[in-house]
Amino acid sequence: MTTTHELGAEQLRSRIAAELARARARTAGLTEAVDDADLLRQHSPIMSPLVWDLAHVGNQEELWLVRDVGGREPVRRDIDDLYDAFKQPRRDRPALPLLPPAEARAYLATVRDKVHDLLDRVPFTDRPLVADGFAFGMIVQHEQQHDETMLATHQLRVGPPALHAPDPPSPRVRVADEVLVPAGEFTMGTSTDPWALDNERPAHPVRLPAYVIDAAPVTNGRYREFIADGGYDDPRWWSEAGWAHRTKAGLTAPMHWRRDGDGWAYQRFGRWSPVRDDEPVVHVCWYEAQAYAAWAGRRLPTEAEWEKAARWDPATGRSRRYPWGDEEPTAEHANLGQRHLWPAPVGAYPAGASPLGVHQLIGDVWEWTSSPFRGHPGFAAFPYREYSEVFFGDDHRVLRGGSFGTDRAACRGTFRNWDYPIRRQIFSGFRCARDARPDESGR
Fold first, then answer.
1. How do residues 76-113 score in pLDDT, each as one tens digit?
2. Which residues contact 347 (CB under 8 A, 6 or more apart)?
3. Which residues bind gamma-L-glutamyl-L-cysteine (predicted)?
4. Percentages helix, strand, coil for the chain, rounded to the nearest 5?
5. Which residues are annotated as part of the binding site for Fe cation?
6. Is 192 exposed, middle or buried (0-12, 13-18, 19+ CB in 10 A)?
């Protein structure tokens, strides 16, 4: 007779196997969509060749699951240094003796066979690395994160379109301009989500004054007003560092935009189309977001403000896993998982709104916050410092919420992303916030 504990372990094994397969299918789709020459080519000096990402996800799977969790002999110890992201800067990776595409795929298949064998046998003990299948979940999330990186590389490649997906849904509701978030305490982070990564932990109380946040991300239409008003030419709106970067980089519009008669066009994965005013703006850096907010008389939200708007339930006072509740995202909740290849228009996902009426907090575009990337109070690096701790400090700004290219496995209300403030090849947008006035906050 199967015990409840055994049934739970078998359900966990099935879930892990399904998530591993889902991530690998996406990896295959991204790397089989182009020929070997495209896989080996570096499409931008700030991105790896796709073939490097391909073998890297297999190498991480081997290091953590085959060798560490399983205690098995290495499959390819000789390639560890080649696929160590800290030892090999992206700009130098094309010159490395990388595994050619066929060999990389064979390596991934060998590693995955060993992982399936391990999954059939591993006991889910209290050892932190295997409790609740954490190491497997970490690897699923790692592969999905690299899939999003490879998707960003596809956006940068030159050539005929290689990826295809249906258009996002049309707007279903009209969304308000902004929402008041009352003053008070909420729980930020998590101590209970079994696959949450170290920088999401631990849960801790945060008290915030009342503030107002945009009910949706800033749209192309709003951002075009900033451009038309000379926003890129007026240093009043830019920080000193932002203006220096704008000038040096020659920024005049979001990445992948170009003038099209009296309007603008946007290149999406090899296709040009008119900029649609009701879609969230994407491919803007932190400095651009900050300048727009200053021009609009507002500011970027802090990370805590973003998370309270995304998770806090005023009826119960508890923090949910997602804006709509604790259940996993579906196609009705959010634009995630490369289901579409660009952001959905504002109002397309009413089922994903928070109780306060804040929309599209999950999916569509990563949202820049004003906060530098630091650990939560009580942070402890696990299972290695290089996942997040080495990036703490003022050099990186936090992004929240995920994009249309983020998978549901690597996106929840506590998930934290970070990047340099100059980066805009990522699927980044933003929403604005402001302090509440006394007549709004009830003071």
1. 999 999 999 999 999 999 999 999 999 999 999 999 99
2. 171, 172, 173, 174, 175, 216, 278, 359
3. 90-93, 419, 423
4. 40, 15, 45
5. 56, 142, 146
6. exposed
> With contact defined as beta carbons under 8 Å apart, do 154 and 162 qualify?
yes
Mean pLDDT for 313-339 is 98
Annotated binding-site residues for gamma-L-glutamyl-L-cysteine read: 90-93, 419, 423
Above 50 in pLDDT, residue 6?
A: no
Q: Which residues pair with 263 in a beta bridge?
A: 260
Q: What is the pLDDT of residue 4?
A: 37
Verify cis geometry, omega within 30 degrees of 0, for the bond prior to 209: no
The 3-state DSSP class for residue 395 equals strand
Same fold, 4-156 and 165-443: no
Give the closest residue to 101 by CA, choosing from 27, 175, 171, 165.
27
Residue type, 302: T
Residues constituting the chain: 443
The CATH number corresponding to 4-156 among 1.20.120, 2.60.40, 3.30.300, 3.30.70 equals 1.20.120
pLDDT of residue 442: 60
What does the alpha-carbon distance between residue 51 and residue 27 come to, in Å, rounded to a whole number? 11
How far apart (Å, rounded) are the C-alpha atoms in residues 311 and 326? 10
pLDDT at 2: 35
The model's pLDDT over 115-136, given as tens digits with 9 standing for 90+, comes to 999 999 999 988 999 999 999 9
Q: Rounded CA gap, 334 and 348, in Å?
A: 9
The DSSP line for 181-224 is E-SEEEEES-SS-TT--GGG---EEEEE--EEEESSPPBHHHHH
Q: What is the CATH number of domain 165-443?
A: 3.90.1580.10
For residue 56, pLDDT beyond 50: yes
pLDDT digit string (tens) for 284-301?
Answer: 999 999 999 999 999 999
Which H helix or E strand runs over 268?
A: strand 263-268
Residue 179: the pLDDT is: 98
How many other CB atoms are found less than 10 A from the CB of residue 130? 17
Q: Above 60 in pLDDT, residue 303? A: yes
Going by the annotation, the residues of the binding site are: 56, 90-93, 142, 146, 419, 423
Delimit the domains of the chain by residue range.
4-156, 165-443
Instruction: Evaluate if pTM is beyond 0.85.
Output: yes
